[in-house]
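hey all, quick one before standup. I had two proteins in the batch that finished overnight and I want to keep them in one place so we stop losing track of which output belongs to which input. First protein below, input sequence then structure tokens straight from the run.
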Amino acid sequence: MTWNAVSEFREEAGGLVPYVWVNGTLRPVGWAPLPGSQVAFLAMVETIGLFQGPRAGCGKSEALVADFLQDVGVLGAEHKGLLIRRTYPELEDIKSVAAKIIPRVFQSANYNETTSTWTFGNGATLKFRPFLDASEWDRFHGRNVTWVGIDELATYKTLEPMQMLLSILRSSHPLARPRLRACTNTWGAGRDAILEY
């Protein structure tokens, strides 16, 4: 999936609907990236990517979810995503963002609250999991995922959890482009570790 940037928003049915240019026609869509930083983040080809910005307003979390969605129609059931934060309560914000975007883009996607997992019509999955620190690595070791997302990377004191997660980023699918994406605001316990990296 490739994303066309938002050209304009229109108020419809009590909400704002993004419109994008598709083959010379301005059309409504379920979600589209804002020109600039969201478009740049979604276009990255590097294995590791970071979207850093202010606490609110630039759409870091939306872009993080959208980055996973790019390969839902490409890899089928081979596309397995893992979206993490330090604790379950911290996952609530990103789960809300996903619940707003995913049904608009993939109407057949289903969310299982018990397992905190989105399952798509072609078998792709996006799981939300807490990962407090390196002491919890055994819960992740040995998995195979094509995509890892870390929301609020600077809440980690070190980048050790991120580096550990890189080891489960793999796929034998010929079209897979395994990647780790993170977003964070400009302040947190791991700010200096991120800057050094």
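OK second protein, same deal, sequence then tokens:
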Amino acid sequence: KLRFFREFFGYYKMLSIFKDNKRFGSHYDNAKGRLVAEADRLVDYILKQDSHVFEKLLTTEDFYVFHSGDNEAMTKSSERIRKIYDYFKDLDWQNFKPADLQKHRPFIEEVKLRGMRFNDLQRSLRTFNTIMTSFTARFDKGQTAAAPFVSFPAHGAYNASTRTGLQLRSPEVARFFNIELDHWDYPAIQPDQVPNRKGLLTHPAWLIAHAQNTATDPVQRGKWVREKLLAGTVPDIPITVDAVIPEDHHKTLRARLVAVTEKRECWKCHQRMNPLGYAFEMYDDFGRFRTMESLEHPDNLIQKNPEKGGVYEDLRDIYKTLPVNAQGSLEGTGDPRLDGKVENAIDLAGRLAKSSRVRQSIIRYAFRYFMGRNEYLSDSKTLLDADQAYLQSGGSFDAVIVSLLTSDSFIYRKEPGE
């Protein structure tokens, strides 16, 4: 079930997308794996509830952010950091000598402070200072809890294999959700609400997987919604068309896209995608919420930042900006109450979740996945029965699977014309 939704939403594709590590530091490669793992974790959480599954996948306001999925373990880890910080915060730990560590050896051994070797106090002191600097940054502004920087196994065999069995360790993952680690009251009990997010289509993993390497992609994002959720089709790009967005470092991507795609010869196809994709312009190519678009061009550079930094440093260069326009429109649900202008991706997600066409489209993709083939006209009753199973069960995806795998389409493996 998890694999079906992973492939349906396609967020795992972000693992193969190359990004410039300089934007986030040397841990970015691990951050990609963590984002996919935590998207998996959210899908798995909703599947286990098995109630109104499609609606929750599209509208949930709860997410996993820097979390292993084990609430008890994460609570203990966060409390341990707080205990260490509280013990040393009023001591002059910045000026500790190696002998001072020896004085506090019982407590250090009690809390199992990493990297402390009492046969090498000089080295341990350097490690201690690094740890306390990190812990202080996470508590010295009145924070109540802190995210533990520990390694968690990848969630599911797919991630483990793509990461060659490595542990997924990257505090940078919080930045994709616009969270500053040194100002964050970390929720050890998750999933938990994250501002400016609603459903998997606003999850950074999905947004990154459906973006260009250095820019957003309203066309690709809109095409995905049209085809996967609204059961629509979009013709391939004609071979005579040069699908290139003009360069203009004084305009937003949307403005440049409009200038090209809304010409009469292009709009026939792009009207099926662009108005849907524009709603996601409230997020950048890394899935970060924004109200202003950074015009990343040397002529617009305001401040150049260093290429390397610590966990808490934002390495992005600062450029001139223009306001983001995330308004779009929704057409094709078959319900006039849902179709119309949308304010942004959150508004769009809420409307899509109410659409019977969206529900039926997901079920059609489930049919293809579990049957291993496309549907035929003779499969109509199977699809209708699966839809009714979902509705009558209160939105159970298990009920959909049972309905599909006990249908004549599955049992008799009908071929066209039979």
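Flagging for whoever picks this up: Residues 18-27, 153-169 have pLDDT under 50 and may be disordered. The longest strand covers residues 292-294.
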